[in-house]
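INTERNAL AUDIT FORM
Audit reference: QA-55
Scope: verify that the stored structure record matches its stored sequence.
Auditor: D.O.
Record contents follow.
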Amino acid sequence: MAPSSNFEFLAEHDPLLVELATAAECSFSSDPNTTLIKLRQLGEAIAQHIAALSGIAFDGQTSQADLLYRLNRELRLEPQVNELFHTLRIARELAIWFHQPSGSADTRFKPCPFVAPAVSISRQTVSSEERI
C-alpha cells in the first residue's frame, strides 16, 4: 500500500505508523470497522513509540490504559493529546457496545479479550535502537 501524502511524514519515525494510518484512511468509506481498528492500532503504536523513545518501561502485559497513564505522568501530555489517545483506546469498546443490541441474536455475547497486533512497535524500536 503506497503511503498517502496525508501520512508520509510519519515514515521518519517508523514505517509501521505510515502503514497503519494509510490503512485506516484507505478503508474509511469501504470498511469503517477496519478504519476504527487501524486507528486504535495507530494510537497504540504511537504511544509505544513515544514510551520507547522516552525510556518509559512497558511490556506485552502493559495495557494501553496503563501505558497512557505512565506517558501522561512522566511527560505531562497536553490535555488534547491525552484525550485523543483515550478516544482511540475506547474505539473497541464503542464497537462492542454497538454490536450487543444490534449484532448477533445471542444476548449473552461476551467479547474476547483484546489481542494486540502481531507486530510490536516496541520490539522494532528497541531492535532499531540497538543497531544504532
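Auditor finding: record pair retrieved intact. The radius of gyration is 16 Å.
Action required: none
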